[in-house]
Amino acid sequence: MDSRQSLRSLGMILIASLFITQSYAQNQSQTTKDDDSTSAVEKRINALVEKILSSIDNEMQMTFGHPVLHEPLPEGQSADSSDSSALHDEFIINGTDSTITFNGDNNIGINDTIRGFVVVRNGSLTVNGVVEGDVIVYEGNIIINRSGIITGDATAVHGTITKNDGGTVGGVMYETSEAPNHYRAHSSLLSRRYYYTDRDRHASRLHGPTVPQFSLNWLTNSVSNFDPFIIRYNRVDGLFLGLGRSEVKPWEARKNFALYGSLGYGFALHRWQYNLGWDLFAGPRDCMEAGIEYHDITDTRDSWIMNRKENSAAAFFIHEDFFDYYGRRGFNIHGSLYPTHHLRARFDYLVDDYESLPWKTDWSLFGGNKHFRPNPPIFDGLMRSVVMSLDYSTIDRTWWQQSGWNIHASAEYAGNNLGGDFSFHRYLLDIRRYEPIGNFSKLSTRVRVGSSYGTLPYQKIFEFGGIGTLPAYAYKEFFGNRMVLVNFEYLIHGSALDNSDFWPIEILSPFSLVLFLDAGWADCVPARLSYSDGFNTLTWNTLKSDVGFGIGSRDGTLRIAWAWRTDQQSSPVLFFRVSRPF
Question: How far is CA 135 from CA 89, 117, 207, 345, 367, in A?
């Protein structure tokens, strides 16, 4: 396999994604020029209501049950609900710029798919199936059950929104406090329509717009993603208790600056730990960020393998700690640019003292006669480095219906004119794709490539193997200054069986089936080689892989799985997960 051709292909994927992002940013900038006088949320609701009512008045709708009322009902009067609860057999409604209007209480069945705007007047809407568009309910509630999917926005005017476990809203959820009777008439030559005035509209945002969920686990530059109460357990800190405030994104801040930080104590290490950061926000729509952070922490480079909460639970309950740790004390100066909410370019200047930490505790609630692994030593010393990174994300806040790309690329430069005890260049590319296939299955893919120039200290080498990477192999069995890792996961949602009349099959509906395939390669090559060289040993014979399956909860988060090596005959490796692999 030609190493340059492989890197070129991966680079083309990233470049293509960036061109898509640039095009999206241009379109977004054009549509936001008129937002000066009204907030983005108000504009969005107003435009949506105007479009729907205009479509209704132009008779571009399909009506079920009672006729649509263009005039608001008198105070206290409600539509006759004697036959307003409509249950539909399997159907698919398609519409371009069309409005599908219901009157009274309605239920979208589990096998139903509606494509277009959905409007419900004088009743509630229960969603068990799929709405490929936006939903607005006037004088009623929206209930999204575990199999229900709304790909657009959900708005309840004078009502509430209830999203049960497993339910999905791809856009934004709004609740407004004013009833439809507060409409005001507006006459024009073309049509008569009703609209909310700014004074009458009181919209509260339940969930923010779909924004990138940048993973700080990819970069170990900042430790600022935590709950207010921090509880961890590992073989170095032992029990760690602390308090903290998470880092704030520019669009979440109410001021032009924000403070974040944490303070906690590791009882086995007998050591206080902290981080304190200050960020400034500037630019149009707060698209720029700059700040500084001081820290003295127990850090790890392994949080991309699994989240910290799951690792703490494994260490506390089953005597398995999957992270390796080191001390990191210093500061970083950083700046970020958000051309859109989907793209972040970041710059970090880091000055850190690294130190090895000892293995301090061997206690666990369960685990029999097992012992924790020793915590490996690192290369101690002062590291001065510059990290440039690019993150592109179209992932929403939900799991089952999340789809799109999550791409991270970073380049770290240490030594040379920066000083310090280390000199190297380190490059990382992580591409993830989440692709729903129909209503009840999804394919998730991760490609992770690492390379370097110069001598990498131990805390910067690439390692994988075992849980979260190649589960059929030993933990961190593969390491080096070159790495390629590919993971595929196909998940079949148990709700596909909800309507089965055959009870032995129906009892499986609360579960999901997971099929996976993993492959990886790592090697140590001479430090003098360029980052693009050294991949010539990557062949089908040197590529290690495994296959397996698992049974899990509906969203695949909680699972038990079995993995088999493909290079030799061996017994399956059994493992448990309480979080998604990637």
Answer: 20, 6, 15, 34, 50
Q: What are phi and psi of 570, to 5 degrees?
A: -155, 165
Q: Residue 496, SS3?
A: helix
- Distance CA(445)–CA(463), nearest Å, equals 19
Q: Which two tokens stand for residue 389?
A: 């990174």
Q: What does R_g of the chain's alpha carbons equal in angstroms?
A: 27
Nearest-angstrom CA–CA distance, 180 and 182: 5
Q: What is the DSSP letter of 68?
A: P
Residues 6+ apart with CB under 8 A from 528: none
d(CA 407, CA 429): 8
> What pLDDT, on a 0 to 100 scale, did the predictor assign at position 42?
53
Alpha carbon separation from 287 to 2, 120, 278 (Å, rounded): 40, 37, 16
Q: Which two tokens stand for residue 254?
A: 């109410």
d(CA 449, CA 483): 6
d(CA 28, CA 22): 10
Strand order of the β-sheet with 203-207 is 61-64, 99-103, 117-121, 135-138, 154-157, 173-176, 203-207
Q: Which of 100, 105, 55, 107 is nearest to 79 (CA)?
A: 105
Strand order in the sheet with 168-169: 92-93, 113-115, 130-132, 149-150, 168-169
Counting Cβ atoms within 10 Å, is residue 521 exposed (0-12), middle (13-18) or buried (19+)? buried
Rounded distance, CA 431 to CA 484, Å? 12
∠ CA 559-564-568, nearest 5°, is 170
Measured CA to CA in angstroms, residue 244 lies from 279, 338, 449 at distances of 16, 25, 33
pLDDT in tens, 73-84: 344 443 333 333
pLDDT tens for each residue of 189-234 = 223 223 333 323 333 333 333 444 444 333 334 445 556 889 999 9
| Token pair of 245 as six digits | 């405030």
Helix (H, G, I), strand (E, B) or coil at 375: coil
* Contact indicator for 534, 502 with CB cutoff of 8 Å: no
Task: Kindly state the tokens that stand for 232.
Answer: 């961890």
Q: 3-class DSSP state for residue 437?
A: coil
